[in-house]
Every structure is written in structure tokens, then in C-alpha cells.
Amino acid sequence: QVQLVESGGGLVQTGGSLRLSCAASGRTLSIYHMGWFRQAPEKEREFVGRIMWRSSRTYYADSLKGRFTISRDRAENTVYLQMNSLKPEDTAVYYCASGRDPDGWEYWGQGTQVTVSS
31-67 burial by CB neighbour count: b if 16+ within 10 A, else e? Predict the structure, then answer.
């Protein structure tokens, strides 16, 4: 199994920045990719982006390109989500997830709340 722990959420004003962290532990050698998702109240869960575990290549939701950046610290088995120019519509619970293959997300973190005030 893989354990994922997110941190770094909080309250920020419009235009501000936040960096979320997701620390992975356990069977990290089985990870193919890690991703970030978010879910706003009364909305479907939304894909934010992902990073390939070996190559660190990243992919993003088109609507978030340019504002959000995913990176990885190999030594710490930690993935980051840098969020800039935040807007009230970015308010959501943000989750990280890991998968063993391109189509799956087997493990999820507990989520961290991000609130952007107008």
C-alpha cells in the first residue's frame, strides 16, 4: 500500500499563492504517477494535474495551465502543487492520489481545504 498525506491548505486572498504538499510512504516503488484533484462544494471531483513518478513529466487540466505547477522532490517522496493567481473559484478540497498504471488511482490522501476569499 501507499500512504499519502497532504498539507499546506488554508485561507488566501484572491491573487495570492499557496503550495500544497503530498508526502508518499509505503510501497512507493509501485507508483506510476501521482495526481492532484479538487472538489468544490456540490460539484464533481475535478482533475487538476499529474506527474509521472519516474520521469517527472507533468500534465495539467487545460483550464489550470499557467497558474498551477506540479513538482516532485525525489529524495523526500513528496509531490507539490504550486498554485498562483488564485481565484475564489479555486476554493475546494484538494486531494492527491497515486496510481500503479496510467488509468488508475488506487490511493488517496485525506484532502486539504483551500479557501480563496474575494
Answer: bbbbbbbbeeeeeeeeebbbbebeeeebebeeebeee
- Cell numbers 492527491 correspond to 96
Burial 8-19 (b: 16+ CB within 10 A, else e): bbeebeeeeebe
pLDDT per residue as tens, the chain (118 positions): 999 999 999 999 999 999 999 999 999 999 999 999 999 999 999 999 999 999 999 999 999 989 999 999 988 999 999 999 999 999 999 999 999 998 889 999 999 999 999 9
Which DSSP symbol is given to 102?
A: T
Interatomic CA distance for residues 47 and 61, integer angstroms:
6
Cβ atoms of 83 and 66 closer than 8 Å: no
